[in-house]
Design goal:
The protein contains 3 helices and 11 strands. The chain is α+β, with helices and mostly antiparallel strands and 198 residues long.
Length: 198
């Protein structure tokens, strides 16, 4: 009986030693956090001041609907040096005229709005459609709401009823009605493109 107790104590002691060695090994392999690391984790600027999912918002002008925003996720960072609102899962923007009819629509897979500059930046598969059903495709588009100007320095493709225009650099009004391509690289009639398709 006593022999059994002694053996149990030996097993317990050996297990404790292994556990203690494992803890010491783990502690010695961990690096201590620097004050900068700790500040980065707890800094309020790293977290959104407002986070909203499945948002649909309307902006009015003189009592009339001017814009409608639809997004799966919106995060506001008002504590940053350059405050911004981020739409990491994309944005659908609808522009209305004075009669509250749709003038244009813009979609992108990512968007960010810089509050101090009143500047939108849309990225990744940006597509805009005006009231004439002309489609503008690009990978990056800026919208200056102060100047009421939309522009891009990236590759642009504009599809109209009759032709497809391609080029680099783009400027337009907010309704995508009056636009220019700075450097046109190609003009293709819609009939030509349909003939080229297999």
């Amino acid at each position: 009986m006593k022999q059994h107790i002694v053996n149990s104590n030996k097993i317990l002691t050996a297990g404790s030693i292994y556990l203690l060695l494992a803890v010491v090994f783990l502690l010695s392999s961990c690096q201590s956090n620097t004050p900068e690391d700790i500040k980065a984790v707890v800094d309020e600027g790293n977290f959104p001041s407002l986070a909203v999912n499945e948002l649909e918002s309307v902006i009015t002008d003189s009592g009339k609907v001017a814009y409608r925003f639809i997004t799966p996720e919106m995060n506001q960072y008002k504590n940053r040096e350059r405050p911004y609102t981020e739409f990491p899962k994309g944005l659908h923007l609808i522009v209305y005229n004075d009669m509250e009819d749709i003038d244009a629509q813009i979609k992108s897979n990512y968007a960010i709005y810089y509050e101090d500059e009143n500047l939108w930046e849309l990225q990744n598969n940006v597509e805009a459609v005006n009231f004439k059903n002309e489609v503008i495709n690009t990978e990056q588009l800026f919208w200056d709401t102060k100047k009421h100007l939309v522009y891009s320095d990236e590759f642009i493709k504009i599809t109209t009823e009759k032709e497809i225009l391609t080029g680099y650099g783009f400027e337009s009004d907010e309704k995508f009605e009056n636009y220019t391509i700075k450097n046109i690289s190609g003009i293709l009639s819609v009939d030509e493109e349909q003939r080229e398709e297999p």
